[in-house]
From TrEMBL:
InterPro entries: HSDL2, NAD(P)-bd_dom_sf, Sc_DH/Rdtase_CS, SCP2_sterol-bd_dom, SCP2_sterol-bd_dom_sf, SDR_fam. It comes from Pongo abelii (Sumatran orangutan). One of its GO terms (cellular component) is peroxisome. Keywords: Mitochondrion, NADP, Oxidoreductase, Peroxisome. Belongs to the short-chain dehydrogenases/reductases (SDR) family. GO terms for molecular function: oxidoreductase activity. It holds the Pfam family SCP2. This is Hydroxysteroid dehydrogenase-like protein 2. Residues 214-237 are annotated as: Disordered. It is found in: Mitochondrion; Peroxisome. Its main location: mitochondrion.
Length: 345
């Protein structure tokens, strides 16, 4: 496991969901350095099925050398978030590191706060054993999981990096390999047992599936061996843009104010644009009349899947299927528009 260095001593870490599971593991890792931990979570009273509250977590944090500030926070409530931040500033002076739920917003915030605040997303390569995993995976799922310690160590590694390390989608195992960790069995609930890949990563490692089957185990979410994907029907991209055009309105244009350029490779590909600056909006083949704010490069297959909701933009970006140039905040706005159109595509 990754040893503590003491470099987070005096730092203030604002962690949502820190009353149990992954959030608490990150908190305890940082607390061992002497960090100040803001525990921002909903559970103030004991839960009948889930162990831990913000107060029991605070006791554990202080027991290993950290300072704790338990705050009742529902991340859907902006007032509660603001109140917790104000309490943190009042008690600790400021907070220097934060852990929130992660999504494509990482890209927008990394661009917006470049040079001031580093913003990164951390994903597990495999399933992590938590109370939620027990409920979702059923009996025996823990043997296919790693401990929350691997996420805590990966987060600890990120916390020690400079502000220039920003806008990254980090996989726990990858960053720990860079730290020199070679033995990952120490993180396994059942060392040597095949592991369940994380649900939110696009790829399902075929080698893992074969290894599980060779030991008599059956992957909980076994997928069939990938088959060559059929090419989209003739004119699929054109049809997608036609539906997008029918969905445009002055309200959409007013809310977006951006021009998107799509560089598509493969059948029915080429350069297409989506103009959400001009009155009423417009789409078409070729270059837009105004300079594009965002340029997206991908295959026609993935473009159609993305606009129809079969491929999440975040996953497309993480896996290298989608390349983005330009204003990341405006790229996020397009993701919201896609969600509204999915039912029609």
């Amino acid at each position: 496991m990754l040893p503590n260095t003491g470099r987070l001593a005096g730092c203030t870490v604002f962690i949502t969901g820190a009353s149990r599971g992954i959030g608490k593991a990150i908190a305890l890792k940082a607390a061992k350095d002497g960090a100040n931990i803001v525990i921002a979570a909903k559970t103030a009273q004991p839960h009948p099925k889930l162990l831990g509250t913000i107060y029991t977590a605070a006791e554990e944090i202080e027991a290993v050398g950290g300072k704790a500030l338990p705050c009742i926070v529902d991340v859907r409530d902006e007032q509660q978030i603001n109140a917790a931040v104000e309490k943190a500033i009042k008690q600790f002076g400021a907070y220097t590191i934060a852990k929130y739920g992660m999504s494509m917003y990482v890209l927008g915030m990394a661009e917006e706060f470049k040079g001031e605040i580093a913003v990164n997303a951390l994903w597990p390569k495999t399933a992590i054993h938590t109370a939620a995993m027990d409920m979702l995976g059923g009996p025996g799922i823990e043997s296919q999981c790693r401990k929350v310690d691997i996420i805590a160590d990966a987060a600890y590694s990120i916390f020690q990096k400079p502000k220039s390390f920003t806008g990254n989608f980090v996989i726990d195992e990858g960053i720990l390999k860079e730290e020199g960790i070679e033995n990952f069995d120490v993180y396994a609930i059942k060392p040597g047992h095949p592991l369940q890949p994380d649900f939110f990563l696009d790829e399902y490692p075929e080698a893992v599936s074969k290894k599980m089957e060779s030991t008599g185990a059956v992957p909980e979410f076994k997928e069939e061996k990938p088959q060559p994907q059929p090419k989209p029907r003739s004119g699929a991209v054109e049809e997608t843009f036609r539906i997008v055009k029918d969905s445009l309105s002055d309200d959409v244009v007013k809310a977006t104010q951006a021009v998107y350029l799509f560089e598509l490779s493969g059948e029915d590909g080429g350069t297409w644009f989506l103009d959400l600056k001009s009155k009423g909006g417009n789409v078409g083949y070729g270059e837009p009349s105004d300079q594009a704010d965002v340029v997206m490069s991908m295959t026609t297959d993935d473009f159609v899947k993305m606009f129809s909701g079969k491929l999440k933009p975040t996953m497309a970006f993480m896996s290298g299927k989608l390349k983005i140039k330009g204003n990341m905040a405006l790229a996020i706005k397009l993701e919201k528009l896609m969600n509204q159109m999915n039912a029609r595509l």
